[in-house]
Amino acid sequence: MSDFPVMTNDRILRICRGEEVDRTPIWIMRQAGRYLSEFREYRKKHEFFEICRNPEYACEVTMQPLRRFDLDASIIFSDIMVIPQAMEMECVMISGKGPTFTSPLDTPEDLDKINLSPDVNKVLQYVFDAITLTRKTIGGKQPLFGFVGAPWTLMAYMVEGGGSKTYSKAKKWLYQYPEASEKLLDALTTVCIDFLVGQARAGAQVLQVFESHADALSPELFHKFTLKLLKRIATEVKAKLGKDSPPVSIFCKGGHFMNNEFVKSEYDIIQVDWTISREQILELKSKVVQGNLDPCQLYAPKEEIEKATREMLKKFEGVRHIANLGHGIYPDTDPDHLRTYIDTVHKETQKAQA
Ligand code: 1CP
């Protein structure tokens, strides 16, 4: 790892170590993507998963938002679906629909048709190569995030076959086939751990776990099926990496009752969505808290974005804060409105030079 460029912007890493920073750092979930014309142009030439699998393409697309905006982090261009693909489930990206599985899991017998323990270092090596190349290309100007989809979120897609409003098919598994569900979730957890460890070894400097469908779960289901697995991910990743472990971040979308559980965990960063109150944020204060402007706020006129940004910053006063949105940026967002958000965070939080 020693031949990586020296970091010239390490605000996020400093915040995670509890050190002072000159201004609140900011990055954006889904900062590379369809709201950028250069990304849409690139996608005309290359299929989505072809970009993920080719380290040079993935690097190029990761760099696109960094060239436009004054961001404090990058996130490797990939998708959470690379894990189900590694488990030998076919998943294709359908325009206007999103990731789609050709043969979703229907009954527990279908678990025999997939590979529950893939050799991550072999089948996902392309992600590690993309991370190493991208970290070198960024040249120390921003730290690089690696990520995984959390086990429940991955299971939800593998059973539903794609996005869903209710996740009722996947929840049906939890109620009807609890043992098979646990078997699948446990296998996914092991893959998540190996994959995050590999990403850190390849050069990822922060790791984020996306539990994007936490909001489908009741507190009972959350406690029964996923909390212990999410905690295991942070604990085992850190145990395997030892003192070199990067900070690890957890995002349970829509899960306030879940956030408090991570105060007593190995996670360093808790990402929150826009529905959380100042009081709830303060309960997470012993951790770094990341978030949380509503991505729809970026549809408002620029003056209103500036005002909402100042209000958001106030909610995080006294907390170690990494600014972000409360969920990924939407494809029809005007990039200039995102610039207003980023620049306002920097301007409002810049400390006077000593
Ligand atoms: O800069 C970046 O963040 C880009 C890298 C990235 C990441 C971190 C992509 C590219 N996807 C993700 C994570 C991801 N993928 C999550 C977790 C974060 C979140 O909650 O938003 C999830 C749930 C997915 C699944 C996914 N992939 C969806 C949602 C499907 C649904 O209906 O629930 C979609 C639409 C995708 C496709 C996708 N992934 C990434 C991009 C740029 C796109 C657009 C597709 C395209 O270019 O055709």
UniProtKB/TrEMBL annotation:
Q: Which InterPro entries match?
A: UROD/MetE-like_sf (IPR038071), Uroporphyrinogen_deCO2ase_HemE (IPR006361), Uroporphyrinogen_deCOase (IPR000257)
- Which Gene3D superfamilies does the record cross-reference, listed alphabetically? 3.20.20.210
Enzyme Commission number(s) from the entry: 4.1.1.37
> What's any one GO cellular component for it?
cytosol
Q: Indicate yes or no for the key word Disulfide bond.
A: no
**Protein species of origin:** Oikopleura dioica (Tunicate)
> What protein name applies here?
Uroporphyrinogen decarboxylase
According to its UniProt entry, what is the function of this protein? Answer: Catalyzes the sequential decarboxylation of the four acetate side chains of uroporphyrinogen to form coproporphyrinogen and participates in the fifth step in the heme biosynthetic pathway. Isomer I or isomer III of uroporphyrinogen may serve as substrate, but only coproporphyrinogen III can ultimately be converted to heme. In vitro also decarboxylates pentacarboxylate porphyrinogen I.
Quaternary data: Homodimer.
